[in-house]
Amino acid sequence: MLHSILEERLRAAFATAFPDTDVGEITVRPCQNPKFGDYQCISVMPLAKKLAAEGEKPNPRPIATNVLEALDVADLCEKVEIAGPGFINFYVKVEGIESVCKAAARGEHLFFEKTRKPRTIVIDFSSPNVAKSMHVGHIRSTILGDALSRLFRLLGHNVITDNHIGDWGTQFGMLLVGWKEHLDQVALEADPIPELERVYKLVNSLTKTDKVVADRARDELVKLQGGDKENFGVWKKLIALSETQFEEMYARLGVKFDHALGESFYNEKLPGIVEDLLDTGIARVTDGAIGVFSDGNLPKKQDPFLNQKDGEWVGIPALVRKKDGGFNYTTTDLATLEHRNSEWHPQEIVYVTDDRQQQHFQQLFAAYLRWRPETSAKLAHVWFGKILGDDRKPLKTRDGDNVKLKDLLNEAEERAFRIVDEKNSELDEAAKREIARIVGIGAVKYADLLPHRQSDYVFDWDKMLSFSGNAAPYLQMSYTRICGIRRKTEAAGHDASIQPDLLKLGEEAEIALAKKLLGFGLVLDAVGEDYRPNLLCNYLYELSGLFSKFFEQCPVMKSEAAIRRSRLVLCDLTARVIEQGLNILGIETSEVM
RNA sequence: GCUCCCGUAGCUCAGCUGGAUAGAGCAGCUGCCUUCUAAGCAGCUGGUCGCAGGUUCGAAUCCUGCCGGGAGCGCCA
């Protein structure tokens, strides 16, 4: 890739001119302002600071001059300039861009390189609960986690996705009472999850006022935990009903998991873990419960097991066993980490959850590293913000319930259908439905991935489906337009096959588009580095914008043969990058819209 | 009280981790369809980057202190 070649050459030049420098700190990156060239190096200024003698003013420009004398990039660049306080600006030759594009057109790459150091990466995301509807709270985790999984796989890593389903816990006591005493069989058969939610809510509210019901729920839970045959059977049934729902949702979202090891998978391991933590002194008894406390090895401010209240530092333990003998989610999560490490030996384990769990994961990781100090895997909590409604409060239905994922996806497709129907009424019903599906689901996903993952965002149908501006349909349409060009060119009797060597960049819009294509790989690396797909969204939007300009200014079909063949190559590359980029985001494309 | 996050155009948000003159979309005006999908393109208008200091060649970005908003803080997950 052009960028990495320039970087290598520049590093070599630095090594020649200043043998003591750490060339790893020398980087080349695309210019944000085309006025200063195509690529730039800003590393000379900080370097000059280091090289300057004590008390002496750093002087970057002479350093840059010396480096340029040792640099040979005449084959790739029109010129290389030193500018401002010590920027090195590269103006690349069009032939250099063309040659990278031709290689891509020949199928040698798609403007990115697979990693040279493949890692095994476990990604934990989605985590819905049994007997409950998937809702807005699962959207970001599911969509973000899936996008990251797709990216890391594409970059050549060994990705293991694991859905940590909530299939165990106190709620099953109430569900069992509900199942046995309040279930409406007809409703259950018609649509099981809402009926399960109904009886759960019913029993839950009864327990608040009726001690008898509360005791029954506890008894049923104890029986389940004790392996009671009947309750175990009901529990299995609840899981099976829920799995049907999960599969339906994941199929609509195009999300797949390698594993779905729920909380219950780790049940038997929990007592042993708590004993181990007690034996090693990592955990101790507190008010009848058992918890992991601070070991005092961190500064108080950074210690996840401490908090300041009224001027005094108090311990915030991560409880691993409740007073009543039940286990907490920290215990399950420790068991999960242990299993993932021993089973899969990953270099990295990624948790995709909401921002409220930051403290939990800090405690979890700290506790685990104390328990298993030999751990070498990178433990990452990739957290994200809330989805808000118009009122800027967490998105809810009018009744104050969570918005169900199913309803949300239905509405997305329905709204998309109305637009497709209006814009493209001549298509048959099935085609319109399919386009509406791709557009509707794509719009929801893109709206979720576009903001910085850590910020809250306001859910806005009109915005995500407005079909103008930075939204999925605009990107999908760019792809569709390219398909249209290819189709019409062929229909007009021209040869629309791709001949890589016929690529010749002339117009400004062509060169700008091609340059943007070259930046694809850098963006993918940046997304992986910080787990931030929004960088890819921005890139694809800019790429589509440059394509639109090209589309306006550079006719393909009506140009003379040589130009037509060249532009077809550029179109094809653009379509492939958009398709690949959207694919990473889990968004489909359509040849017709 | 403590920890984390946020505060950028009228609105919704980016801003590549310290780079050159802070960018989009929406909203509001102005042009462009007998021409590959106008679901588009070109242009105009719009900014004390919450406030005040500091660090340096250079700050929306880093450090400190305020102001304002959100989340979390012992047996839920």
3D architecture notes:
- The chain is α/β, with parallel strands linked by helices and 593 residues long.
- 52% of the residues lie in helices and 11% in strands.
- β3 (77-83) and β4 form a beta hairpin.
- It is flat and about 85 Å long.
- The mean pLDDT is 93.
- The chain binds one RNA strand of 77 nucleotides through β1, α2, β8, β9 and β10.
List keywords for this structure.
four-stranded antiparallel sheet, 4 domains, RNA-binding, alpha/beta, Gyrase A, domain 2, 593 residues, Rossmann fold, four-stranded parallel sheet
Question: What's the structural blueprint in terms of helices and strands?
Answer:
Elements: H1 2-17, E1 29-30, E2 39-41, H2 44-51, H3 60-69, E3 77-83, E4 87-92, H4 94-105, E5 120-124, H5 136-154, E6 158-162, H6 171-181, H7 185-190, H8 192-209, H9 211-225, H10 229-253, H11 270-279, E7 283-286, E8 289-292, E9 306-309, E10 312-315, E11 318-321, H12 329-344, E12 348-354, H13 358-371, E13 378-384, E14 387-388, H14 405-423, H15 429-449, E15 457-458, H16 461-464, H17 472-491, H18 508-518, H19 520-530, H20 534-553, H21 561-584
Parallel strand pairs: 5-6, 5-12, 12-13, 14-15
Antiparallel strand pairs: 1-2, 2-4, 3-4, 7-8, 8-11, 9-10
Helix pairs in contact: 1-3, 2-3, 4-18, 4-21, 6-8, 6-9, 8-9, 9-10, 12-13, 14-15, 17-21, 18-20, 18-21, 19-20, 20-21
The structure holds one RNA strand of 77 nucleotides.
